[in-house]
Design a protein that fits this description.
By secondary structure, this protein is of the alpha/beta class. 42% of the residues lie in helices and 19% in strands. The structure holds S-adenosylmethionine (SAM) and iron/sulfur cluster.
Length: 395
C-alpha cells in the first residue's frame, strides 16, 4: 500500500509535531509487560493530572500546531469519563487546532460506552485495543485480565461509537501457541474487520513474570518458530487485504498510524507523563519512570531528565535509517541525505552495499528497505547500521 506522504521538504522547521501522553495506570500487571505503570488511586490520578498540566506548561511549543496525539500506557482507557475529559482538556489546550489523528490505547476489560463517549467528545479519532489473543488458555498464560467475550463486546462498542480507525493488538510466539493456534487468532481478529492490526512477537522483557519463567527454563525461545509465524502473518494478512507498512503493522488503505510513522521517520514529538520519551526542540530524552519522582522534578521546573542527548544530524540520520528500513516504504536516501547532509554518508553507502550483498536489504527506486529475509532479522540489521555509524563518527 502507498504510504502517507508529508511535506516534500523534510527539513526540521516543517517536520510534523506529535504529542505522546503516557498514562501510567493499569488494573494489574500482565506477565509480559515492562511498560511503566502503577495501580490507580484517586490521589495518584489527581496528582497525575496536575503533573500533566505542569509539564504541558513547560514544553516549548513555539506556537507550533500539533499533527498527532497518542495516549499510550499503561491503560489510558482505564481513566474515568471525567478524567478522560480532564486530560483531554489539558492536552487540547496545547494543540493549536484539531490534530490529524488522536489515538488512545484501551484494554478490553475497561471499554464502556461512557468512556467511549468521553473520548469522542474530546476529539479522539483512533482506538487501539490490546486483545493479544482470543484463546482463554493463552490469555491466562499472559496474565491478562480479560476474557474472549470481553474482546467481542468491547470491539462492538468501539465500532458503534464510530471512530475513524480501530486497531487490534495481537501477540504471537506465546508459550504453548503453535502455528495453527496463531492462525486461529489471526482469523478471529480478521473476522472483526479492524482497520489496523499490530502483531507483536513476544519479547521476554527483563523482570517480567515471563522473563523469570524463561530464565528458569519453564518456557523456551524458538527463533525458527518465530520466523515461521512472522511469515505466516505476512502472507495471511496480505491475502486478507491488509497492507504491511512496518514489520509489525498492517492497515487497510488510509488507516496506517500517522503518529508512529512520524516517530519512525525521526520527526518531533513532545512526551508528557512519567517514562514518556521526547524528541523535540533539539533534544532527545525521557521522563523518569516514577509518578512521584516525575512530579517532584516538575515542581522544580525540570522535565526530560533521563538519557538526555543533543540531537545531531548524524544521530537523526542513523535512527531514521534503522527505523525507516523496518517500514515497507523504506527510506528515501536522497531525501534523507538532503535533510542531514553532514551525516557520514560514504560509510553508510559501504554498509548499504554490504547489506544488499547479504540479501537482507535492497535499494529500489532510490529507497532503502529490508527484503523479506531482512525483515526477519530487522533488529540485527539495525545493530549493523548502528555499528557503521559509530565507527564512522569515531574516526
Ligand atoms: C503499551 S501496551 C498497552 C496496551 C493496553 N494497556 C493493553 O494492554 O491492552 C501496547 C501493546 O504492546 C504489546 N506488548 C507489550 N509488551 C510486549 C512484549 N513484551 N512483547 C510483545 N508485545 C508486547 C501488546 O500487544 C500491547 O497491547
Ligand atoms: S500490557 Fe497493557 S494492561 Fe498489561 S500491564 Fe502492560 S500496559 Fe498494563
Amino acid at each position: 500500500m502507498s504510504e502517507i506522504s508529508f511535506n516534500a521538504f523534510e527539513g526540521d522547521r516543517y517536520a510534523p509535531l506529535g504529542v505522546y501522553v503516557h498514562v501510567p495506570f493499569c488494573a494489574s500487571t500482565c506477565d509480559f509487560c515492562a511498560f511503566y505503570q502503577t495501580t490507580p488511586t484517586a490521589d495518584g490520578i489527581d496528582r497525575y493530572m496536575t503533573g500533566i498540566a505542569d509539564e504541558a506548561a513547560l514544553v516549548e511549543w513555539a506556537g507550533r500546531r500539533v499533527e498527532t496525539v497518542f495516549w499510550g500506557g499503561g491503560t489510558p482507557g482505564l481513566l474515568s469519563p471525567k478524567d478522560i475529559r480532564r486530560l483531554g482538556g489539558i492536552v487540547a489546550g496545547r494543540l493549536g487546532g484539531h490534530p490529524r489523528e488522536w489515538t488512545v490505547e484501551m484494554a478490553p476489560a475497561s471499554v464502556t460506552d461512557a468512556r467511549l463517549e468521553a473520548l469522542k467528545e474530546i476529539g479522539v479519532t483512533r482506538i487501539s485495543m490490546g486483545a493479544q489473543s482470543f484463546q482463554p488458555a493463552l490469555l491466562d498464560g499472559l496474565g491478562r485480565q480479560h476474557t474472549r467475550e470481553q474482546i467481542f463486546r468491547a470491539y462492538e462498542r468501539i465500532r458503534a461509537a464510530d471512530f475513524t480507525s480501530v486497531n487490534i493488538d495481537l501477540m504471537f510466539a506465546l508459550p504453548g501457541q503453535d502455528e495453527a493456534a496463531w492462525l486461529t487468532d489471526l482469523s478471529e481478529a480478521l473476522a472483526l474487520a479492524p482497520d489496523h492490526l499490530s502483531t507483536y512477537c513476544l519479547t521476554f522483557e527483563e523482570d517480567t513474570k515471563l522473563w523469570v519463567k524463561l530464565s528458569k527454563g519453564q518456557v523456551k525461545l524458538d527463533v525458527e518458530h518465530e520466523a515461521r509465524l512472522y511469515e505466516t502473518t505476512w502472507a495471511r494478512l496480505e491475502e486478507a487485504g491488509y497492507g504491511q507498512y512496518e514489520v509489525s503493522n498492517f492497515a487497510r488503505p488510509g488507516h496506517a498510524c500517522i503518529h508512529n510513522i512520524n516517530t519512525w521517520r525521526m520527526h518531533e514529538w513532545a512526551g508528557l507523563g512519567p517514562s514518556a520519551a521526547s524528541q523535540h526542540a533539539g533534544l532527545r530524552g525521557g521522563n523518569v519512570a516514577d509518578l512521584e519522582q516525575w512530579q517532584a522534578n516538575l515542581a522544580r521546573g525540570e522535565r526530560v531528565t533521563e538519557d538526555r542527548v543533543v540531537l545531531t544530524p548524524s544521530l537523526l540520520a542513523e535512527d531514521a535509517l534503522i527505523f525507516g528500513v523496518r517500514m515497507n516504504a523504506g527510506v528515501d536516501l536522497a531525501a534523507l541525505r538532503g535533510r542531514f547532509p553532514s551525516a557520514p554518508w560514504s560509510a553508510v553507502e559501504v554498509e548499504i552495499a554490504r547489506l544488499a550483498d547479504a540479501g537482507v536489504a535492497e535499494v529500489r527506486d532510490g529507497s532503502l528497505r529490508l527484503t523479506p529475509r531482512g525483515r526477519l532479522i530487522a533488529d540485527t540489521v539495525g545493530a549493523e547500521l548502528m555499528q557503521a555509524f559509530s565507527e564512522a563518527t569515531a574516526t
